[in-house]
Specification:
heterodimer; A: 106 residues; mainly beta; Immunoglobulin-like; 5-stranded mixed β-sheet; 3-stranded antiparallel β-sheet; 52% strand; B: Cytochrome Bc1 Complex, Chain D, domain 2; two-stranded antiparallel sheet; 11 helices; 7 strands; 7% strand; globular; disordered N terminus
């Protein structure tokens, strides 16, 4: 089960600067740690986060091992049209998790 | 090399510290007006994370718990919601009353224990590991329904011996460092231990998200941490000793506001 929380205002006026937040549960295992008996814990991190607005990519971020577990991203967008704000996280095993929210722009 | 005089000062310093730690009888309770949640000891930035549900990572477990609440399990094919309905109504204030007396065993049971019991006895599902993600998520979700409500320990005389046992544990010195919970949390809560605030040890926000853990954890996990910290052997998870201690801690924090999911450094 995906554990992702996204925050997008439900409504906005055209031209407004809106606050977007996205958080996902992920261990962000660095690959530098040792487990029991000195066995290396393999790296498992999210490497890329993408936000789309109305199908168009508007924000992306690359994550590295120094990013904490359950990474939280906050950024701004300009409300231009009603539509879907989509979020996608891709980890280094190629798995993706996604979430989305609707915004109504008047 | 420090001269003899300097060495003497160093020695006096260490002895002075030992005297501070040992001279207290560890019996002074914090007066109700002086009680403060661990939240008040945190930096404003950390408090802001807890205050904002869109930034509080503990909400990820609340979300997972909400999903599990309606998920059918076991041969009975029942979900929590099949019996209890919407948790927002049925579970409001429940966590503030736990640990409570379990009528069947005549012993106190904590919220996690109750959920696990419900699952294995009524749903007939596979038992969930006590510190596993799923049981933590369910506990967090249920406890979250009591957020903002005052902690209200049950007024049941049958709990008194267990509560007294909890107090006994709280005030008994243990481990190689020979410290009781009370040595720090009753007597030195306004001090700092290295860079960290000592705090008064009120369990207001459990299960809570510790930045150090990078995940959510139970009160017993936190207690285990403290016991390891004083070089004592921790009680077994879910043991009567831990439940008694939880019972006493909730009584000690009676009337304080529930914060689940809390954030702590």
């Amino acid at each position: 089960m995906t554990k992702a929380l996204v925050s997008v205002p439900k409504t906005a006026r055209r031209g407004d600067i809106i606050d977007i937040r996205a958080m996902i549960a992920h261990p962000m295992e660095t690959g530098y740690r040792m487990g029991p008996n000195g066995v290396e814990i393999p790296r498992r991190i999210i490497t890329r986060f993408v936000c789309t607005y109305g199908g168009e990519e508007v924000f992306f971020a690359e994550f590295f091992p120094a990013v904490s577990a359950n990474p939280f991203v906050s950024f701004s967008l300009i409300a231009s049209a009603s539509g879907t704000v989509g979020f996608e996280w891709t980890d280094d095993q190629g798995q993706t998790e996604s979430a989305s929210a609707e915004i109504v722009v008047t | 090399m420090p001269g003899p005089a300097a060495r003497l000062i160093v020695l006096t310093g260490v002895t002075g510290l030992l005297i501070v730690l040992t001279s207290h009888a560890s019996t002074d309770d914090i007066s109700p007006g002086e009680r403060r949640s661990g939240r008040d000891f945190m930096a404003p930035e950390t408090q802001a994370i807890q205050a904002d549900d869109t930034a509080n990572p503990g909400m990820l477990w609340v979300l997972q718990g909400a999903g599990l609440w309606t998920q059918k399990a076991g041969p009975a094919d029942q979900s929590c919601a099949s019996c209890h309905g919407a948790a927002q109504a049925s579970m409001r204030g429940v966590a503030a009353r736990y640990p409570a007396l379990d009528a069947a065993t005549g012993k106190p049971i904590d919220l996690t224990g109750r959920i696990a019991q419900c699952r294995s006895e009524r749903q007939g599902g596979t038992a969930l590991p006590r510190d596993g993600d799923e049981l933590l998520a369910l506990t967090t979700f249920v406890a979250h329904q009591s957020r903002g409500m005052p902690i209200a320990p049950p007024d049941d005389a049958r709990l008194t011996p267990f509560r007294d046992a909890g107090r006994q544990i709280f005030t008994t010195r243990m481990g190689q460092l020979d410290l009781a919970c009370a040595s720090c949390h009753d007597d030195n809560w306004n001090q700092r231990l290295a860079g960290s605030a000592v705090t008064q040890a009120h369990p207001t926000g459990y299960p809570l998200y510790r930045l150090e853990w990078q995940g959510i954890g139970s009160l017993q996990r936190r207690l285990r941490n403290c016991m390891i910290g004083v070089r004592a052997e921790p009680f077994a998870t879910g043991s009567d000793d831990f439940i008694a201690l939880e019972l006493y801690l909730m009584q000690r924090a009676a009337g304080m506001e529930m914060e689940t999911p809390g954030i702590r450094p």
